[in-house]
Design brief:
Layout lengths: L1 E2 H9 L13 E8 L10 E4 L4 E3 L5 E7 L2 E8 L6 E8 L5 E6 L6 E9 L8 E7 L2 E2 L28 E3 L2 E6 L2 E8 L6 E7 L4 E8 L11 E4 L2 E4 L9 H10 L4 E6 L10 H8 L5 E4 L5 E2 L2 E6 L15 H9 L5 E4 L12 H7 L6 E3 L6 H11 L6 E3 L4 E2 L11 E4 L8 H10 L2 E4 L4 E6 L7 E2 L6 E8 L5 E8 L2 E9 L5 E8 L5 E9 L2 E9 L2 E3 L10 E9 L9 E5 L4 E6 L4 E6 L4 E5 L6 E4 L4 H9 L8 H11 L2 E7 L3
Parallel strand pairs: 1-5, 2-8, 9-16, 17-19, 18-19, 18-26, 19-20, 24-25, 30-37, 38-44
Antiparallel strand pairs: 2-5, 3-4, 3-6, 6-7, 9-13, 10-11, 10-12, 10-14, 14-15, 17-27, 21-22, 22-23, 27-28, 28-36, 29-31, 31-34, 32-33, 32-35, 35-36, 35-37, 38-41, 39-40, 39-42, 42-43
């Protein structure tokens, strides 16, 4: 019998890590046999969270160190069809046993390891492989080919994922014929391997990837804060152990999961599961895409899911951002603010009325000119907003983060933590990436987000591109949103290229850098957050001038009542209506609550005013790109009318 612990010791001789992540107490033991019940020795056995062993001479295997949750176990063997035991409920209290019976087939088996070409150590990675015309796929907790479902109705959101992930060691079955496999890992040159597979044969691959750069060694950490463990479609059975395995293979160092977090049928405490899946190589947190309303979707870092979400439109998004995100120590970024029906309709009031609560602008799963134009519009009006990119991953429908958008952050003290992610967002030390590219922009050795005084000093600027050797790219430096420099580059064998130049500023301005495919300016693969010169204090918030009127709900008679100006945490002022009305200055996140003896209280947020709600509901994506819209919103805030109707007790 072979155990995961034994195999770890064996592979350690080669510097390989096969059971990635923290060690837990769950165990799956079993035996692999052929159709006649004869034990199969040295069959490869793996779990859906990436642990892999070989059976012993008696066909037995043990996989230990499993976190509580549901698992599928798959066995592959030359000349045999895959055998799967699915939805095994594993807890640390009771070992699980299974019997994997295999039947004859013409399939071949490919096994091997992925290593760092310099250190020889095992390397978490992902690859795309095809055997003849058939993709090689991973599998979920239910044993289904992940991304391979063909029984779903047309038009549903389903990602036909073709990835196969590994913690270093791997094994899979494939049809006879030509195999083509491309292995990738962030910061490494990809490797493509081709082999001819024979029926019932076995092919061993030792794949060494050449290291090009290590973002973490330079103090930059890849992450995402807008992703779903279980979005709701539930096409695949997933859980935190499986998700954490995939994230490590895709080289994420911090990651937030929202929505539900597993649909494997095993009850676990999600927060404890995320903490248990975290380690020195990955910090896994839980949050919620909250608020997520018709007023827009908001992503956050630094806080967990809300215990009791505040209902919309009773509470505007900006009220929730202040009370449940920023006041709790988090940072808020409206995600995909211009994207179709999910656009951020409250954005004008957020930025005008509470600029201190919004720290970034999300470029979502791919860069586009409209987002760049809108972001630059805000900066040119004096706002400091870092760039973010997110994946909107949804693991239950086959969508992993992969190349769809990542935000790199640089902690001030070099240590990655929940708090340092928040601080980096608020300070503007972010750079965004698609396709594993890393673009760093420094001025006088300082990181993006830095504010320099206006002076005649000549400063040294460096744009450093980390990318795949041979790639042709176009590096663009913008000043106040206009092209300042544009330099074509070809990435050398080292995977690193630099653009150096001097700059000197005598007026308020900002600089940023982007990297696009050569000849395709619209295909941006990386972009840095800005540097600033001059006075970049947060713009003064636009205050609402509110006329609040209080009436008897039944008779519509004006009432002289007490009106409290408050947010969800505290009261900031108390006023009294005269002849049923009062004029009050308020912030956009304020609520006005009317009280009078013998009546029930009534309240509304500032953005609950009918004229403002009508304006918000009508905003299009094109409206959000025009500063005229923001001027209109500003004018509306000067003439807010709010009526509160009190019911008799």
């Amino acid at each position: 019998m072979t155990t995961c612990s034994t195999l770890r010791l064996t592979f350690a001789v080669f510097g390989l890590v096969v059971c990635a992540g923290p060690v837990c107490g769950g165990q799956i033991a079993g035996v692999v046999v052929d159709a006649g019940g004869v034990p199969l020795s040295r069959a490869w056995v793996m779990t859906c969270n990436g642990q892999i062993v070989q059976s012993g001479t008696d066909g037995a295997f043990t996989i230990d160190g499993l976190a509580d949750g549901g698992y599928a176990v798959k066995a592959v063997f030359p000349g045999m069809a895959d055998a799967v035991s699915a939805r095994l409920a594993v807890t640390s209290d009771v070992p699980v046993t299974c019997r994997l019976q295999m039947t004859p087939s013409e399939t071949a088996v490919v096994f091997g390891c992925v290593t760092d070409a310099v250190t020889g150590k095992g390397l978490a990675a992902w690859f795309e492989a095809r055997s003849d015309s058939k993709p090689i796929r991973w599998f979920d907790v239910a044993g289904r080919l992940y991304g391979g479902r063909t029984d779903l109705p047309s038009g549903v959101w389903h990602q036909a994922n073709r990835r196969f992930w590994t913690s270093g060691m791997f094994a899979f079955s494939a049809d006879p014929g030509r195999l083509r496999l491309t292995v990738r890992a962030d910061g490494y040159a990809p490797v493509t391997v081709e082999r001819d597979l024979r029926a019932g044969g076995q092919e061993s691959l030792a794949i060494a990837l050449k290291p090009l750069f290590d973002p973490a060694a330079a103090g930059w950490y890849k992450g995402d804060f807008h992703a779903h463990g279980v979005h709701g479609e539930r096409f695949y059975d997933v859980n935190i152990p499986m998700i954490a395995f995939m994230l490590r293979a895709e080289h994420y160092r911090w990651f937030y999961l929202s929505s539900d977090f597993n649909n494997d049928g095993v009850r676990v405490d999600a927060a404890s599961a995320a903490a248990g899946a975290s380690g020195s190589d990955l910090l896994l947190f839980l949050n919620a895409e909250y608020p997520k309303t018709a007023g827009g979707h908001v992503g956050s870092v630094g806080i967990g899911p809300p215990a009791k979400p505040r209902p919309y439109p009773r509470y505007a998004n900006i009220e929730v951002i202040k009370a449940d995100i920023v006041d709790q120590g988090g940072a808020a970024v409206p995600v995909h603010p211009l994207y179709g029906h999910m656009r951020s309709r409250e954005l004008p009031f957020m930025l005008l009325g509470a600029p201190e609560l919004i720290c970034g602008f999300d470029f979502y799963t791919s860069w586009n000119p409209a987002s760049e134009k809108t972001w630059a519009l805000f900066l040119n009006k004096g706002y400091r907003l870092c760039r973010t990119a997110t994946s909107d991953a949804a693991f239950d429908l086959g969508r992993t983060p992969g190349t769809m958008g990542a935000t790199f952050i640089r902690p001030a003290d070099g240590r990655l933590s929940r708090e340092s992610v928040v601080e980096a967002f608020k300070s503007g030390r972010t750079t965004i990436s698609w396709d594993g590219v890393l673009l760093l922009f420094t001025v006088d050795g300082a990181d993006c987000g830095t504010v320099f005084p206006i002076e005649e000093a000549v400063r040294k600027a460096v744009v450093t591109l980390h990318d795949t050797p041979g790639k042709k790219r176009l590096v663009t430096v913008t000043r106040n949103g206009e092209v300042f420099k544009r330099i074509p580059v070809t990435v050398p064998e080292s995977g690193v290229t630099e653009v150096r130049f001097d700059l000197s500023e005598r007026e308020k301005t900002w600089y940023s850098a982007t990297c696009s495919e050569d000849g395709r300016l619209e295909k941006v693969v990386a972009a840095s957050s800005p540097f600033y010169f001059g006075d970049w204090r947060t713009p003064v918030p636009v205050r609402a001038q509110v006329t609040v009127k209080v009436f008897d709900a039944e008779t519509r008679t004006p009432l002289d009542a007490e009106v409290c100006l408050c947010d969800t945490q505290q009261t900031d002022g108390v006023f009294r209506t005269q002849e049923g009305a009062a004029r009050i200055e308020a912030r956009v996140f304020h609520r006005l609550r009317a009280r009078l003896a013998g009546y029930e209280d009534a309240e509304s947020g500032v953005l609950g005013a009918p004229a403002i709600r009508t304006f918000i509901d009508a905003l299009s994506a094109e409206d959000l790109q025009s500063w005229e819209t923001y001027e209109q919103a500003k004018a509306l805030l000067q003439t807010v009318e709010l009526s509160l109707f009190l019911k008799r007790k």
